Structures
1.
Amino acid sequence: MGRAKLAAAAALAAMALTACSGGDGGGGGKPTSGHPAQPQGGKPSAPLTKLAVPNGFDVSKGWEQTLAWMPEDARTTPVADAPRSEAVAYLDSSEDGYVPTLRDVRTGAVRWRGAPWQPPEAIEDPAGKGVEIPDVVVAGQGGREYVVAWAHGKSGGDGFTKGREVVEAVVYPADAHGSAVEPTRKVTLLLSDSGTAPRSDVEVRDGGGAGLLVTWDKGAQGASVDLVSGHVRSLPSTGKTKTGCVDTCMPGSAYAAVTTAGAVIANDSGGFGIDGGWYSRDVRPSGVPATHDFAQNGVVEGGTGGELVARWHPVAKGSDGDPVWAVHDAATGKVRATVSCGTAIPDEDAGARLSPDGRYLVFDTVAFDLTTGKGRCFAETPTHHAVRFVSVAADGTAYGTTPDGTPVLVSLPTGSAVPQPHGLQLPLTLYPDRAIFATADPSGPHHLIIYPRTH
């Protein structure tokens, strides 16, 4: 959805993956349960892969899961963390279809498996960004977590008719139990009729506490899905709203979140808010002007769940001064934390990540303490390389890399940064006492490896 896109499990796919060695986790053809390092009863099926990781993780214990069915050029990795449930969700495969699965992050025990699911027939990606495969996302609503497997494809049709372009989603409560679990809801969203050119940039993600947000065409089109009732609500084209615009709507508006207060629309050129609700000019950080160079100030650059990360220009005209970065509550627009930081506009793959307890948020080269409202900047300076963050722990330890790939550990409470040896794998997701690492052999399968934290 352009610059306003949110990141959920995208970091698992966007992180640079390196070759891994060790045991084969199975997968492909039949569902597998991966490799607990210390299973209860029986013999281990293979030794746990031991990666070179920063201090603080025990590589002799843990478990791993291999996703051998994934094509090498897949656009996404069908894995999502479920922080409230302290579990990890992923798509396995079987001869009868894809199998949504949830595993306990501590023990590796399978909490439940879905019944095999046959998604709609895949459509060639019109944007040419690789193979589009079914994916999985974890979303919240009403204080509960839900696991949603989804796919963009073609429904119906035969050798003569072309069928219709749809997004199909199957919904499971994260606290389900058993095997061959049936979804509580199956939702089909029509994108276009037969013969119409395929939609581009289809994304399904946690909307920010009010179910799912489905967007396409760079986020300009969207719909929300109620995970309890299965109700689908079409959102008006962003070009037909006033939110994110000065007088008339400008190109580049996109849906950034869907909250209990309404959908957040963000404009690439500046301005964001909820139609009929709050607007960015009224919730801007202290001292920041409402406009910059005759456009609305404030550009949403990313976010996660119910938080938005916005970049604000400090002056009304010209280009002097470092941008002010702010975290906003998506439902109210309220500023939660700010920092002045001269970082460049982040890459499209930059994703916001929260610590397990929700206190710290990192995005690209900025980091925030949402309790104190303070932020820290790790953009490039005359004496230091920039650090782009990957993840952050509850104690404020953030993990990132410099442009040349040097791993760096940063203490957000103190601001100290310690470079690490080249070649270390950094955790992609952190739980209170576990962390997920991902590796991929260029000629082999994708692995998820979970190690305990030692401090």
Note: The mean pLDDT is 84.
2.
Amino acid sequence: MIAVPGFQGRRVAVFGLGRSGITAARALQAGGATPILWDDGVSGRMQAEAEGFAVEDLTTADWSAFAALVLSPGAPLTHPKPHWTVEKARAAGVPVIGDIELFARAIDTVPASLRPRVVAITGTNGKSTTTALIGWVLKQAGLKVAIGGNIGIGVLALPAPAEVEVYVVETSSYQLDLTTSFAPDVAILTNVSPDHLDRHGGMEGYVAAKRRLFQVMTPDKVALIGVDDDWGWKTVNALNDRRLRVSTITTRTPPEFVDPTGGVPVAKIAARLPDQQPAFDAGRFIIVDATGGKLVADGVAIADLAPARSLPGRHNAQNAAFAYAAARALGVPHDAAVEGLMTFPGLAHRMETVAQLGAVRFVNDSKATNADAARQALSSYPSVFWIAGGVPKDGGIDDLSDLFPRVTRAYLIGQSAEEFAATLGDTPHVITGTMEAAVTAAAADAQAAGGDQIVLLSPACASFDQYPDFEARGEAFRAAVLNQGATPLRS
């Protein structure tokens, strides 16, 4: 655990007792603060009381006595309207912060010569895979690494700085909205597409939250920006205006390496199809140095990703490019960084091959909670038996229509089933309702089709109509697949 100093002997309100809230309370207490906890749910309050924390109804508390409010990232800061604790804190002049901000303050108190370096990753899609991949590469290079944040372990539950050389932290837009001093050594923005717009008041607010990752960066830090979307290029331009060290990551092919905003990145790393490669996203990708318009450094590509079985498709080529660039920025030798990419075992629930039944592979992409994430998986295979549905995001699957020809048949589950059926139109589909029924039908159809086939769970939806989270949904898929008699695998 990371003890949080700076609040010794002071009362700190903590609202929301999920993973981040309860770990924040423990870290504050370890640093000498008196955390005062509250949650709208009885179970959260009971857990806090069982651990010996002070639990007080914050609706009637004296807010002038609090040094800060540590807000759960699940509670709205600004939209659709500020949470009632935020309104009370602001009325009393109490700062509102989150667990990432507490982490930043704790790390800043470590003497510079002993301070671990921090890699932080945000973005709409790809951030979890990129986080796990960077952590893997650094560990394989022999570094003491701790991975957490919005993935896996809450950031304040990670080992203390004395035990760590590099923290690799995934950060959500909700968490970044609650930061003021977070300045990672390597800051990564994978990509930006519409998501969580209700919580940020629209696209501009969402992008502004993501850019908070760079708000206090100094020229000794490194920014890695994905520029396959316009928001990435706009971010590059803004950081260039501040004369920061910016490198861009792209999967575009020439001549699109040219920066359309006129910015001048320090370096460009590109993932692209080799010459003569069929132009679809399931192709073999190579990582190259595109600095100064070059496609390779000294005539040699950085890495050929063909042997990296857990990194298929264009989006994973981008993730690999981020991981290579981050590792090199931290001083990992070229050969060690490439070796780490080749041996990465993959991330659970993200294009994870869970089992095989004859020539049929079952791929768990439950983490694809919006259409843009589902696009990455659909683009990686020439044809699929597609399981989709849940709680739809704005726009549903309308933007995936260009990929419908790759869908041999779709199996629709959850709240969005009728809506998705209408969108699919003439694309073969069936409303199955449940995961078990979808897997049973898809397995039978894929076997009947003969040859190598893919059954893909890539829902393009949130899970909350049928499951508590995407992990539970992915495990339900795995269980249903194994019930078909499939042999469990790990890609």
Note: The longest strand covers residues 407-413.
3.
Amino acid sequence: MKTINDIKHLILVCIFIPIFTSCNNWLAVDMEDGMLEDKLYESNEGYMTVLNGVYARLNENYSTTLSMTILDVMAQYYNVRQNTDHIFHVYGNYIFDDKVFEETSSSVWARQYAQIANLNTLLTHIDAEDSNIKVSYYSFVKGEALALRAFLHFDLIRLYGPIYNSATENITCIPYQESDSKEIQPLLPAKDVMGKIIRDLKEAAELLEEDPVRTKGVMAEDSEDLNETNDFRYRQYRLNYYAVKTLLARAYLWVGDKANALLVSKELIVENDEKKVFPWITKADVLNAEIPDLLFSTEVIFGLYNTSRVSVFNQYFKETTTINNALVFKGERLNDISCKLPYYFSDDDDLRRGSNFWSEETLEQMTNSGSASQPSICFKKYADIPGTTKPFRYMIPMIRMSEIYLMAAECSDDLTESIGYINEIRNNRNCVDLNLQPGDTKESIQQYITNEFIREVIGEGQLYFYYKRLGMEEILSGTEFSEDRWLESINLQNYVWPLPKTETDQRVNVN
């Protein structure tokens, strides 16, 4: 049996090990020993161990699959779809019945629910009559645990649930696991799942009202006071108050409640304007020749910390990988008509279009008859910066400030106000203002929003969900680029992952 000190050591190891050698399911397994479980929750330290373990293990799904690789392939960012030898070909072509996809889906499902189970055990203990957690820890630990439970369920319904609207809200999709019971929970209608997600996020936001991020900022360093714990510091790497509120706005928008999404978004914009907790990145920081901040890290409200991020970059994005593995953009030269980038970035001086983000490379392509070379545009957002102590070296963004502005722009009925929110982003990307045209409508404003969203979240796994929420039937192609062709059709069913066979088989056996 592991001692508490062993578990403390293991969780620290889990935080820093490479993502490809994930921790064992130590918590889920060892919690079967009721004595150890009770022992773990005897102190604040035990609660923090469990909570930190969940944050660490988010890297299993979110460092690759649900961020910079598979979901972005499915959003057609990359030149994958027509390459049958590409390792992500199955995902680029939405071949859901392929064994490779089924294995990925089963893994995503199991990992999400394993962490939800750990959170539910924590939540059961924290509200028990004999709970030993200190008052000063209670609101933070419970608030973050509820927020994480909602976060994990929300991405499950964004994958496996229907395109949400009044005609689909009663379609059953996923369970909402809110107890530590090991019994199989019923599949719930999408409306019920989203109701529980919003409920948990609202409660989490209330519990985190006194989050020090609102008065002291992100605190991205150890305290100088040796008597002060770091448990409530490094707030960018935890579901802090602002992250929870942004998730709440995201959830409201998912169900079409634009009034509440706008209300929450405006509150966040006003408070951040006043306190500058997440200031816009400066041009100097982006263009810094030695330490370029290509993640615009000051604007990241919540991100993962992963010291093995460079391994992902080297495997899929670095110019030394092969075209069979590479996640690259269509085109030979950055400004060529066949290149995707001019369609993304209409402003030549857009910081997101700069040469520090992109490079023209010739990659090797392995074929049955040998090898060939292919000109490609490589993406350098996640390139390593050896030697720097800047925290963004190991950051993977999950939620960023610009999304709040785009949600506000989408939800506002005032077209001038909407353009203003979009231009706030563009001003801070070194782009010219958009001007409201006489013929502009909500539809044309939505296209402006789509354009900015595409530019903002490359490598972050959010575009696929954006397309799904809007039920978009034509999206920007990753493979077809010419003066008269740059869109491709997408079947709406390609936005809905079928439940993993491991899950459906289990339910048949129970029934």
Note: The beta strands are 172-174, 188-189, 300-305, 358-367, 370-379, 395-400, 474-476, 487-489.
